[in-house]
Amino acid sequence: MGVGITVENLNAWFGKHHALHDVSMIADANKCTAIIGPSGCGKSTFIRCLNRMHEVIPEARATGSVRVGEVDIYNGTSAVQVRRRVGMVFQRPNPFPSMTVFDNVAAGLKLNGIAPGKKELEELVERALRGAALWDEVKDTMKKKSGASLSGGQQQRLCIARTMAVEPEVVLMDEPCSALDPISTGKIEELIFQLKEKFTIVIVTHNMQQAARVAEFTGFFLMGRLIEFDRTEKVFTKPSDKRTEDYITGRFG
Amino acid sequence: MARALNQQVAPLPFGRKLSDWAATFIAASCVVLVLAPLLAIFGYLLYKGFGALNFDFLTKTPAPPGEIGGGMANAIAGSVLILGLASAIGVPVGIGSGIYLSEYGRGSRFGNLIRFTSDVLNGVPSIIIGITAYALVVLTRGHFSALAGGVALGIMMIPTITRTTEEMLLLVPHSLREAAYGLGVSKWRTTVSVTLRTATSGVITGCMLAFARIAGETAPLLFTVFGNTYWNWNLDQPTAALPLQIFSYAISPYDDWHRQAWAGALILIILIVFSVAAVRIAVSRGTLGSVQ
Ligand SMILES: Nc1ncnc2c1ncn2[C@@H]1O[C@H](COP(=O)(O)OP(=O)(O)O)[C@@H](O)[C@H]1O
Ligand SMILES: [Mg+2]
Question: I want to staple B160 with a disulfide (CB 3.0 to 4.6 A). Which of A251, B12, B172, B210 is the partner?
Fold first, then answer.
């Protein structure tokens, strides 16, 4: 089951560069929340703060409060624990090239030392691959072929399966379709609809139609600030801020 | 599709064809230049040493000076022992410090210090490393030993392995580390099971380079393993080693020993080639690369 995310007064820096200013918002459980905005406005920085991936970058830091369910992830818990509950799918598909398709999906369980018995692991992997709509394409070769040998769209679905296999409560997606062709993009959008039953989803997208199709809520970022956050229809039809209107009507960005 | 496109493109001008041809020719010549000395050495060793290679050579200890016959069995065994020991020291320490440099000490003062030290160590003449091992092990234990030789050669392996491991780990895209972090995998586990695993073949190449480099070292063995005309399996005792045996036979006045020195050199090269090939095959069996 998904849990909600509550963000309060989030600020983020890269060294001296102040990349996020006082962001506050709530992502509802088992809903999809889209983050839109022009390049460089801090979308990636924002969602990387939601699973403490931001701090992986040298000199990067964040302040404020982010609660996943009831847990304040910046207080009294470890980044490793947070990331088990809040999974992430990246812009460029990044399967582990040294592992087979099967091992890629099992990686989270194995590397965390929580791999169940062989039979159960097979079932979990199958469920994850089915969940990511990849099972039929790889079931015969998944123990022989490297994760890197799949097509771009398949790789991205493999990364989704890999994330799902550890059963997180929230899945963050940073422009998951921007490196993919339209057909693969369509498949992943369909997938997002199903994933919502199990997870809370926060998705960064460059594509406003995509946001309109998959997300119940949308947040618009500009220059490191959250300008507008509301139900998706509202943001796209009656934005309350002039800058949002300019962006979605294509006047800049 | 590709053909259709090709047909519309005008044929390459002669100058471009010429430079393309010249580049290919130069690259091919370089390959020949690299391979020729190797093949020449191997051929000459075969020519000089093959005659003295026989069952006795591989199974017997040296004959007393001046007598015909005997072999280098104990020196071959000694070399295997010493090289095994050296690898047991050099490989883990080298890989460990390479991991530190690339994953933990990036940009830190301590990291830069280690990197600098390792580069200096790489340039230290092997005889000095031999003297160091003499001071560290031989003097403290009171006698020459295989252990001292293993320590000397092990130290010599460290800088090469450290630096190649570092370089190979840096080539692994950061996005793979983030993928593992995103699954809640700890940094250490990510380093071992994702980063190092992805870079395996490069890291192994570094180890093999270091191994091949020390396998023929003679100078550091003079003060450490000392040599032995009899069998010895005790790490704490003076031991025979192929390079030492080759050296002392080559400067001896006996023709038979000269022939055996050639045979010993041939065996040494074969030993190196076989261990490098064996490791390569074992590793490519164990990883995906070859299976696909
Ligand atoms: N690793 C980094 N180091 C320094 N500055 C960065 C880094 N990544 C992003 N930034 C800066 O932070 C700002 C926000 O970037 P980002 O979150 O990647 O934007 P978006 O995903 O919306 O395109 C930009 O000004 C960018 O230059
Ligand atoms: Mg981005």
Answer: B210
CA of residue A61 to ligand 1 center, whole Å: 13
| A60-68 and A170-174 beta bridge pairing | unpaired
Residue A221's pLDDT is what?
Answer: 96
**What pLDDT band is residue B292 in, cutting at 50, 70 and 90?**
very low
Quick: pLDDT tens for B217-271.
999 999 999 999 999 999 999 999 999 999 999 999 999 999 999 999 999 999 9
Tokens found for residue B65: 């000076």
Q: What is the pLDDT of residues B30-69, one digit of tens each?
A: 999 999 999 999 999 999 999 889 999 999 999 998 888 8
Task: Classify residue B280: in a domain, yes or no.
Answer: yes
Domain that holds residue B237: 71-286
Ligand 1 pocket mutation pick from A13, A14, A172, A220 by most atoms within 8 angstroms of CB: A14
Considering only alpha carbons, which residue of chain B is nearest residue A103?
B288
Domain-embedded: residue B204: yes
Measured CA to CA, the distance from residue B190 to residue A96 in angstroms comes to 11
Question: B292 — contact with chain A (CB < 8 Å)?
Answer: yes
The CATH number for B116's domain is 1.10.3720.10
Q: Residue B20 falls within a domain, yes or no?
A: no
Number of domains observed in the structure of chain B:
1
Indicate the number of domains in chain A.
Answer: 1
- Is residue B264 included in any domain, yes or no? yes
B102 to chain A, closest Cα gap in Å: 13
Contacts of B225 (CB under 8 A, 6+ apart): B78, B82, B144, B145, B146, B148, B149, B238, B239, B240, B241, B244
pTM, whole model, 2 decimals? Answer: 0.89
* Ligand 1 contacts CB of residue A42 (under 6 A): yes
